[in-house]
Amino acid sequence: MPQRLDSRRGGATAVRALRPVAELADPGGYAWPVLRFSLGDIPVKVHFSFLVIAILAPSSRAIDIVAWVLVVFLAVLLHEVGHALTARHYGATPVSITLFALGGVTVYPAIEELTPGKRFVISAMGSVVGIVTGGVIGLLWLAGLFDAATRVVRVAALSYIWASLGWGVLNWIPIRPLDGGAMLTSALEIVMPQRAVPVAKAVSAVFGIGAAALLWYWGQTFGAFFVLLITAMGLSSGGAERQAAASPGGPDESARREMTDVDLRRMAAMRALMEDYGLPTNVAARAALALHPLDDVPVPSSVFEEKVREASSQLAEALGRTGPRVDVIDELVTRTLTSYKNLAAATGDVYYERRFDRALSGNGSVPERPPHPDPPFPI
User: Fold this and answer.
1) Alpha-carbon distance 198 to 265, whole Å?
2) Which of 24, 28, 201, 354 has a CB 3.0–4.6 Å from the CB of 269, allowing a cystine?
């Protein structure tokens, strides 16, 4: 068990037991993925929840469900690649892609060079890829190329047309957090930067409620519920204002971002280290970062993630043995963050290398993550 910390309060001695530091360590972070791979230098992670898309399969036949899931996977991936390549074209690197239930998200750092106009293009390019590829398949279908194809190939072709072309167009409807909502927000930032977000949310609410009402009237109960769900997500999320500048001094409005589970765990660890271990704020912040080194985004390489999680667990054990000794803890944390930085450099995880470099230099003990660009929902 850790030692106890005695503190003087008005001449009396208050004795408080230290909670085990292992309780403050990173419990695992990510929802379990079922697949990891890279497209060039763009890491891709697929969560098991993506398989939820199977419930929307056009048939109950097993082979049709498999074809549907694979085709939708391809359509969503190409959509996100459209976002990713455009963001990288504008200099926003590193870029990562995550696919999850009913969609995906492309994450890139919000550098100062990303003007509202460029963010508009990034948001639009996902559906452009889908419309072009889906349109080509649609034209081939109309030309009769699939007339002699097997049933499963025809199911796959029709599924791809819907998933890429149909949903690509629908995704441009100005409902946050769809691409159309992001495009609307970026366009409004050009003409009314201070009021872009609230105006975009108001427009999103009108379109979302209207679309849900129409779907309900047409008997599409699931579609109506889905539209209401994503509209509520867009109204409650930070959305475009999470496009934080990569360097200090960015606009206050755009620097806001939502608190995630990782943020909350870091805050809890920091508070406990300050209260129970008597650490000053700066040391506690760096220790909390060292105990919770991985963000939900961007996706790290598997080697980096595995070794960093192992190192954070070892740090938790070492802090538990050390007890409330500020100088020793500070040295342990510094060595750990340095090892994280060096490992990130070796594995090519550029974001994390910069992140821990800033922490070590004192330029922000807990550096900002790159925000989710709209949409945090695809396709």
Assistant:
1) 30
2) 24
145-161 pLDDT, tens digit per residue, is 888 888 888 888 988 99
- Total number of residues shown for the chain: 379
Could you tell me which of 211, 129, 219, 223 has the C-alpha nearest to residue 169?
A: 129
Do 52 and 226 contact (CB within 8 A), yes or no? Answer: no
* End-to-end Cα distance, the chain: 50
pLDDT at 132: 93
Picking from 51, 68, 52, the residue whose alpha carbon sits closest to that of residue 60 is 68
Q: How far apart are CA 176 and CA 183, in angstroms?
A: 9
Q: For residue 44, give the H/E element and its range.
A: strand 42-47
> Is the peptide bond preceding residue 109 cis, with omega within 30 degrees of 0?
no
Question: In terms of residue numbers, what domain contains 160?
Answer: 47-248
pTM here is 0.61
> Which residues, at least 6 apart from 375, have a Cβ–Cβ distance to it below 8 Å?
103, 105, 123, 171, 176, 177, 178, 179, 181, 182
Assess whether 168 and 101 both reside in one domain. yes
- Secondary structure class of 9 (helix, strand, coil): strand
Count how many Cα atoms sit within 13 Å of the Cα of residue 171 in the half-sphere of its side chain: 31
371 part of a folded domain: no
Judge whether 315 and 331 are in contact, CB under 8 Å.
no
Inter-axis angle of helices 350-361 and 326-347, nearest 10: 150
Q: What is residue 2's DSSP assignment?
A: P
Look over the chain and give the mean of its residue pLDDT values, rounded to a whole number.
75
3-state secondary structure of 102: coil
Burial (CB < 10 A; 0-12, 13-18, 19+), residue 176, is: buried
pLDDT at residue 125 in the model: 92
The angle, 0 to 180 degrees and rounded to 10, between the axes of the packed helices 116-142 and 179-191 is 140
**Nearest CA to 187 among 115, 117, 114, 86?**
117
Q: Hey, what are 379's tokens?
A: 């396709």
Q: Name the residue among 244, 246, 266, 267 with its Cα closest to residue 255.
A: 244
Listed residues 209, 228, 248: the one ending a domain: 248
Together in a domain, 242 and 284? no
Alpha carbon distance 146, 305 (integer Å): 45
